[in-house]
UniProtKB/TrEMBL annotation:
<dbReference type="InterPro" id="IPR012764">
    <property type="entry name" value="Gluc_glyc_Psyn"/>
</dbReference>
<dbReference type="GO" id="GO:0051473">
    <property type="term" value="P:glucosylglycerol biosynthetic process"/>
</dbReference>
<dbReference type="GO" id="GO:0033828">
    <property type="term" value="F:glucosylglycerol-phosphate synthase activity"/>
</dbReference>
<dbReference type="GO" id="GO:0003825">
    <property type="term" value="F:alpha,alpha-trehalose-phosphate synthase (UDP-forming) activity"/>
</dbReference>
<dbReference type="Pfam" id="PF00982">
    <property type="entry name" value="Glyco_transf_20"/>
</dbReference>
<dbReference type="InterPro" id="IPR001830">
    <property type="entry name" value="Glyco_trans_20"/>
</dbReference>
<keyword id="KW-0808">Transferase</keyword>
<comment type="pathway">
    <text>Glycan metabolism; glucosylglycerol biosynthesis.</text>
</comment>
<comment type="similarity">
    <text>Belongs to the glycosyltransferase 20 family.</text>
</comment>
<comment type="function">
    <text>Involved in salt tolerance by producing GG-phosphate from ADP-glucose and glycerol-3-phosphate (G3P), an intermediate in the synthesis of the osmolyte glucosylglycerol (GG).</text>
</comment>
<dbReference type="GO" id="GO:0005992">
    <property type="term" value="P:trehalose biosynthetic process"/>
</dbReference>
<protein>
    <recommendedName>
        <fullName>Glucosylglycerol-phosphate synthase</fullName>
        <ecNumber>2.4.1.213</ecNumber>
    </recommendedName>
</protein>
<keyword id="KW-0328">Glycosyltransferase</keyword>
Length: 501
């Protein structure tokens, strides 16, 4: 019990690899995912700890060090790895998190799979996370929990430690009560989240949906609302709201409802984009393209990311626009991050089938319409593709935020390139100068990609300048400062709750 900041996120904050018979801990490949940002919070703490899981055949004798100590650029922190059996991992993460929660979080009611869920296993895993956090937290410490996989941790932790400040951040969408309440365990989850001092979201809509859910399940009063700032308003986005709830009360206690969009390390990305070796790579790509235009799409293989519908739109584009044949190339990057899950294997197979059909129908020896990449790309290479692309085509059916769209914008220090973005991605409420499109509408998708390919240089420049202003304003440092301020506010609320108890 010594840490003043405990971060609880189901993944370990590094890549653990074996080298010459030794275990080596490496930074995650993508420098802009959440993990590097969360680790940077330990610089603001006296001592930090991180609670995650690690698979073990025998949890009593896991065969690895439970606690790993670090003292690096992020300060002094320990990582507590909870041993989970393969059966627990499959049940807690693959089945309950990805096959039951994930479709509901993204409003895919028809993909929701309830029957295989083993709810007692989900409870026991979340209890283990709560116990480990309680054991690590110093008196009055801040415990910052991330994402739906750990929805029950706040309630369990509050039982164990009434003194700690509990903050919960959702990286995914949060659906309205009509969708969320499909979950049979809705009340248990809602009451757990109501044990927090702060509940955080990317955008106002998710915060409003959360309030609708807890008010449908518990005696919750909404105490404060605020006007949404101009840079978070977007007429073209289905997710835009003009006001947002900022606090609720439950059982005489105030709970902050915080909206703060995750950003990216725009300065770092721009520094990679401006390197001479990046310019050389971009020149090679442009030479390879000749007079053709490059459309780039990047995302995990997941039905929420809309890869299938995007490829079908591309097929219709080539069918209807003979002038584009031989003059456009789509680089479709769809990496399968959720292995061993049939629902994702099916999507990967469908994407490969459609891409193959398009190449078969329209391709020639000299020209392949689709380059399908189904593997991880080194970040520096990804930056070169972002810089070389004429269009970034990011059209998820639902997406909590989407950092790929922001990375593309951060790379475009030439103030060129066009972003086509789904109005159902959280990022669309900030990136209103993108061509916003509805991926559920063929006409909207087909019109948007053609508009992007035909856009004149001056309009491209005007739009990109506005996009870059937003991405650099709401960057990862802004998010970190927001979170730091919120954690301080919550500390005062927790103290008030303890004195009035
Ligand atoms: N094939 C890939 N290779 C390397 N990095 C990738 C690849 N696909 C996505 N990424 C990285 O993964 C992250 C995806 O984040 P985001 O767009 O928010 O979606 P999600 O978190 O839902 O996967 C980005 O930082 C992006 O650079
Ligand atoms: O299965 P996971 O945990 O890899 O899913 C990735 C998910 C984490 O919840 O990504 C979300 O977080 C991103 C950063 O906040 C956000 O940009 C993205 O839209 C979410 O899917």
């Amino acid at each position: 019990m010594s840490s003043d900041l405990v971060i609880v996120y189901h993944r370990q904050p590094y890549e653990e690899v074996e080298e010459n018979g030794k275990t080596v801990f490496r930074e995650h490949q993508s420098p802009n995912g959440i993990v590097p940002t969360l680790k940077s919070f330990f610089r603001r703490a006296e001592k930090g700890s991180w609670i995650a899981w690690k698979q073990a055949e025998d949890t009593a004798n896991p065969g690895f060090e439970r606690i790993v100590e670090f003292d690096d650029k992020n300060g002094r922190y320990s990582v507590n790895r909870l041993p989970l059996t393969p059966e627990q991992v499959k049940s807690f993460y693959h089945v309950t998190s990805k096959e039951a929660f994930w479709p509901i979080l993204h409003s895919f009611k028809e993909k929701y799979n309830y029957d295989p869920v083993d709810w007692p296993v989900f409870r026991e895993v979340n209890w283990a996370f709560a116990e480990a956090a309680a054991a690590e937290a110093a008196e009055g410490a801040k415990v910052w929990i991330h994402d739906y996989n750990l929805w029950l941790v706040p309630g369990y932790l509050r039982q164990l430690r009434p003194d700690v400040v509990i903050s919960f951040y959702h990286h995914t969408p949060f659906p309205s009560a009509d969708m969320f309440n499909v979950l049979p365990w809705r009340k248990e989850i809602a009451l757990s989240l109501l044990a927090c001092d702060i509940v955080g979201f990317h955008i106002p809509r998710y915060a409003a949906n959360f309030v609708s859910v807890v008010r449908s399940l518990a005696d919750v009063d909404q105490t404060r609302r605020e006007t949404v700032p101009e840079m978070m308003l977007s007429e073209g986005s289905a997710l835009s709201d003009r006001s947002v709830p900022t606090a609720i009360t439950f059982e005489g206690r105030e709970i902050l409802v915080a909206t703060s969009p995750v950003g990216i390390d725009a300065d770092y990305i721009e520094s990679v984009a401006s390197r001479p070796e990046t310019a050389e790579r971009v020149e090679e790509l442009r030479k390879e393209l000749g007079t053709s235009k490059m459309v780039l799409s990047v995302g995990r293989t997941d039905y929420t990311k809309g890869g299938r519908d995007q490829l079908l739109s591309y097929e219709r584009l080539l069918e209807g626009s003979k002038d584009l044949r031989g003059q456009v190339r789509l680089m479709h990057v769809s990496v399968s991050a959720n292995r061993n899950m049939s629902v994702y294997e099916d999507i990967q197979n469908e994407i490969e089938q459609i891409a193959g059909r398009i190449n078969g129908r329209f391709g020639t020896f000299e020209w392949q319409p689709v380059a399908l990449i189904s593997r991880a790309i080194p970040f520096d290479d990804l930056v070169a593709y972002y810089k070389a692309a004429d269009v970034a085509w990011i059209t998820p059916m639902a997406d909590g935020m989407n950092l790929v769209a922001k990375e593309f914008v951060a790379c475009r220090d030439d103030n060129d390139g066009v972003l086509v973005l789904s109005e159902f991605a959280g990022a669309s409420v900030q990136l209103s100068s993108a061509i916003l499109t509805n991926p559920f509408s063929n006409r909207s998708m087909d019109t948007a990609i053609r508009q992007a390919l035909d856009m004149e240089p001056e309009e491209r420049r005007q739009r990109m300048e506005l996009l870059r202003d937003n991405v650099k304003t709401y960057d990862i440092r802004q998010w970190a400062d927001d979170q730091d301020l919120l954690l301080k506010k919550a500390t005062a609320i927790r103290k008030a709750a303890l004195t009035s108890a």
